[in-house]
Amino acid sequence: MSEGRLIVLSGPSGCGKGTMIEQILKDGGYMVSVSATTRAPRSGETDGVNYHFLSREDFEQRIAENGLLEYAEYCGNFYGTPRREVEAALAGGKNVILEIEVQGALQVKERFPAAVLIFTIPPSIDELRRRLHKRGTETEDVIEKRVARALDELPIAKQYDYIILNDALEDAVHDFFTVMRAESLRADKVNLNF
Ligand code: 5GP
Q1: Which of 97, 100, 117, 154 to mutate to test the pocket of ligand 1 (most atoms within 8 A of CB)?
Q2: CA pair distance 98, 17, nearest whole angstrom
Q3: Measured torsion, CA atoms of residues 81, 84, 29, 123, in degrees rounded to the nearest 10
Q4: For residue 112, what pLDDT is reported?
Q5: Is residue 192 in some structural domain?
Q6: Could you report the per-residue pLDDT of 40-99, keeping only the tens digit for each?
Q7: Distance of alpha carbon 8 from alpha carbon 160, whole angstroms
Q8: Where are the alpha helices (DSSP H) in 45-194?
Q9: Strands 52-53 and 6-10: what pairing?
Q10: pLDDT for 14 beyond 80
Q11: Ligand 1, atom 14, residue with closest C-alpha
Q12: Looking at the 3D structure of the chain, how many domains does it have?
């Protein structure tokens, strides 16, 4: 069985990555990695499902044990990808999606050059702000912090392999699968042993 593909999906928080991933997972060949974080759970979030919610000490312990494939600090909290789960899924032939921010994404690209990095963008910053308000999980202060962070991250999108505009969900999901199809046709991935 061939190894699965490692896929990074980044983009401003509130940009609809979560909804895109829900659609993508309907295709059985994909799984999403559950990250570790020191952020407090939002209402409705479950430990082990949305995140592994850890204390700062436990997170630091994971770093020391080399248990994280990448990690970064984002808006005052730590976030990281558990190494073992991801490596096992890839070895089992699953395509693994990491929904992570840009610093972590660039670490992944360095360590796994074959990873495919996709950055999703909202139609506009006003629309992003509107979506964050609609989600209603953050205070006004945190929303503005996240909008500022989104603007900071935009230039880094140029270091990704693909940019997908998330305006209409179906189009964004279609673009995702188009990228995956194109990746599978890359000359270095195609088996020419007739
Ligand atoms: P949120 O607090 O909204 O769940 O996530 C904040 C940001 O952290 C998002 O941009 C999300 O993609 C990113 N993030 C979530 N998990 C990880 C992770 O394991 N590593 C890194 N580097 N970023 C993550």
Answers
A1: 100
A2: 11
A3: 10
A4: 94
A5: no
A6: 999 999 999 999 999 999 999 999 999 999 999 998 999 999 999 999 999 999 999 999
A7: 9
A8: 56-64, 83-91, 102-111, 125-135, 140-153, 169-184
A9: unpaired
A10: no
A11: 100
A12: 1
Domain that holds residue 76: 6-184
Task: Tell me, yes or no, whether 31 lies in a domain.
Answer: yes
Give the residue, by CA position, lying nearest to ligand 1 atom 22: 104
Residue bearing tokens 């699965």? 4
71 by DSSP, 3-state: which? strand
Structure tokens at 84: 């073992």
What end-to-end distance do the CA atoms of the chain give, in Å?
18
What the block records as the tokens of 30 is 């994909």
**CA atoms of 186 and 173, how far apart (whole Å):** 20
Kindly report the protein residue whose alpha carbon is nearest to atom 7 of ligand 1: 101
CATH value at residue 170: 3.40.50.300
- Provide φ and ψ at 18, rounded to 5°: -60, -45
Ligand 1 atom closest to residue 77's alpha carbon, by position in its atom list: 2
Sheet arrangement for strand 116-121? 30-32, 95-99, 6-10, 116-121, 162-165
